Structures are given as C-alpha cells and as structure tokens.
Amino acid sequence: MDPHTTPAPTPRTSLDARYSDPKATALPWSDAADRLAAAEVFWLTTVRPDGRPHVTPLIAVWSEGALHFCTGPDERKARNLAENPSVVLTTGSSVLDEGLDLVVEGAAAAVRDEDRLRALAEAYVEKYGPDWRFDVRDGAFVGDGGTAVVFAVAPRTVFGFAKGDPFGQTRWRF
C-alpha cells in the first residue's frame, strides 16, 4: 500500500436514512479515503477569534490517516488555528446529480517532525507536480513563497453526500 494513502483507523459507519434514498447503502470508508487522496482542491473552514467563520480553498494531501495542508504563519487561517484548532475541510463536485461530496471535521495540529515533513513534501510533488516542491527547515516547509507551517487534520467525523441515483448520506465516526 502506498504510504501516502494509508487509511485512517476503521470508523463506525452509518447511513442517515433521513437524507438518503430508500435503496441507498452506507459507503465503505475505503471509498471516502480514496477520494480524499485523489481530490485536488479542498475548502478549509476555520474560526476567527471573534467567532466568524473563515473559508479558503487550498490543496492538501492525505497521508497516514490525516489530511495535510500548509499555510504561512501570518496568514489568517494560521492565526485562526493558533486560537482554535477546530476545522472543517470539504471537497467534492459542483455537479448536483453525480459524485460524492465529503466533509471532514477535526482539529488541526502542526506537524514539526522533519522526517515526517520531508515525506509530506514528497507527497505534494507526487500529487501536484514540481511547482509544489518544498524544502524542510526548522520544522516547516520552505518554498518560493517563504515559510509555511504544515497542519495535519485527523478526522473525527466525516460526512459523505452521494449525489445521483441513489443519493445518500454516510457518516463515519472515529
């Protein structure tokens, strides 16, 4: 198995019948994990110090059971995370009748281990190409845009919204 797509621990899986077609079944976690690994764009929601939400698109890699993203230490999302690590990451399709939208709830934790950061830097290049090459120095990514803190979000709860026939809402709890 590829080390960058190691699945998270096996979650409790349920289908919410209130939001699902009668013929829908709960999706296996492996389907969601594969989609998290393959998704190119995510929307990150953090909480500002005054309680207002902050949402921004970004790229992320799925590795060792967590989504990983990076941001400059002075950017709004990094400042928000310093006060409140709770986040939501979403990915999916803007098409109404097909695909699977995923909502990942968890807490962002800074990754400082340089061996782990080097593996993540390789994962960024592998997924997004050489324009996303980072060096690792002083517990952070360093690239053309400066220093970036790397965060890991291990899912607490993930919601999957299957669109089309049948539509359904699967919940995975960790």
UniProtKB/TrEMBL annotation:
Domain Pyridoxamine 5'-phosphate oxidase N-terminal, chain residue ranges per copy: 33-132
Protein known as: Pyridoxamine 5'-phosphate oxidase family protein
Gene3D superfamilies for this protein: Electron Transport, Fmn-binding Protein, Chain A
SUPFAM superfamilies to which the protein is assigned, alphabetical: FMN-binding split barrel (SSF50475)
Lineage summary: Bacteria, Bacillati, Actinomycetota, Actinomycetes, Kitasatosporales
UniProt keyword annotation of RNA-binding present: no
Keywords from the UniProt entry: Oxidoreductase
